[in-house]
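Subject: two folds for Thursday's group meeting

Dear M.,

Sorry for the delay on this. The cluster queue was jammed most of the week, so I only got both jobs back this morning. I'm pasting them in the order they finished. Each block is the input sequence followed by the predicted structure tokens. Could you check whether the formatting survives your parser before we put anything on slides? The first protein is the one we discussed after the seminar.
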Amino acid sequence: MNESSVRTVGWARSLPMDEGVKAARDWAREHLVALGWDKTAPETADAVLLTVSELVTNAHVHARSTAQLVMSWDGQCLHISVHDRSATLPAPREPSTERLGGRGMLLVDALADTWEARPCPHGKTVTACFRLPEGTRH
């Protein structure tokens, strides 16, 4: 096997605004179960599901856009990517008693090992990376 090659398994789903965030979580949960994360890393799986909820909510509420959700596992990191049609990049904001929202990216920042937002020709993609806890076998 070529050492420079990368093996990745992935899934993709389009979530129109009329499909709730629950549909995204349920879909992601199925793939976490397929990976065995529900048994081997349940706390990380919960963090992934909360992140999926936040990123899809951001696409629907702030970008007013269909969310393109992609999950990919490369053996080291589970990448959760959500693409929407807004060019505005998200940033964590300090919580405020004046606003109801604004905590989503703070949660993603706290839950994910890393995350980034990148502009694309037709919007942006936000990707969060999750690694299995030390000593967890996959």
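Second protein, same layout:
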Amino acid sequence: MITPPDSFPYRHVVTLPAMGAAVRIARETAEQVLAEWGVGPQDPCRNPALLILSELVANSVRHAAVLSPNVTVLFAGGPDTFAFGVHDRHPYRPALFASAGIAPGRGLATVMELTHGLGGSAVVRGDVDEGGKSIWITLPLRRGGGSRDR
């Protein structure tokens, strides 16, 4: 499993059973994390980040559950950045950049379009033992003048 970069002062991790409810729980957790970190609904990355997260967790549940009974979401953030990794223990690593025109689904293509449209980045990182991977998304925050309590 990947560890959020040390340069991000805020972190949160949630591990969920690889079943349909994981998508809703991961999204609700992300909403709470963003609120706690001072990222409000007005931030342009908030809603797309929730959609990206939902798609990545749904993909883990749909495609990796046979080998990975759990999916872990790692959140990390700083004053200008929100990042999250979705980890499962299935060894297959999707080609993020080749997904834009590939059938059957458009889930990863949508993830990449949203991520790049926000000026963010995406990377797939394999576990050291090659038994799993994380898809890590990093997005810039564009908050208006407010500061965090933490």
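Two things I noticed about the second structure. Strands lie at 10-17, 70-78, 81-88, 121-126, 133-140. The CA atoms of residues 90 and 132 lie 5 Å apart.

Cheers,
T.
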